[in-house]
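Quiz preparation item.
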């Protein structure tokens, strides 16, 4: 009986964790507009180092953490560059297909000689 319940419990646990993570992301604004996501990211960058220091004091660890590197990330720019590269690839598709077809035909002609 327990062998049949264990997979169901494992699946329910995984679904609950995934659902909770999705709820927290939605509630904090990560799934909103890109400007809202940038604001949440800035808030997280400001809140995480003090929280880590507080937990280290709580557990009695006095190790010095390395400084967090400055990463300039703009979701808007990342999205725009992804769109540009996708559109560029789609527009080059017919030309590349023609080139690869010609190369394949030339290869087959060379084999039959």
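Solution:
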């Amino acid at each position: 009986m327990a062998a049949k319940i264990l997979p169901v419990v494992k699946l329910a646990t995984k679904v609950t964790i995934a659902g909770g993570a999705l709820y927290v992301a939605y509630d904090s604004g990560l799934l909103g507009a890109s400007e809202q996501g940038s604001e949440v990211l800035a808030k997280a960058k400001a809140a995480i180092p003090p929280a880590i220091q507080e937990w280290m004091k709580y557990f009695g660890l006095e190790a010095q953490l390395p400084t967090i590197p400055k990463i300039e990330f703009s979701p808007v720019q990342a999205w725009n560059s992804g769109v540009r590269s996708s559109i560029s690839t789609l527009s080059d598709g017919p030309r590349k297909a023609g080139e690869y077809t010609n190369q394949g035909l030339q290869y087959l002609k060379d084999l039959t000689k």
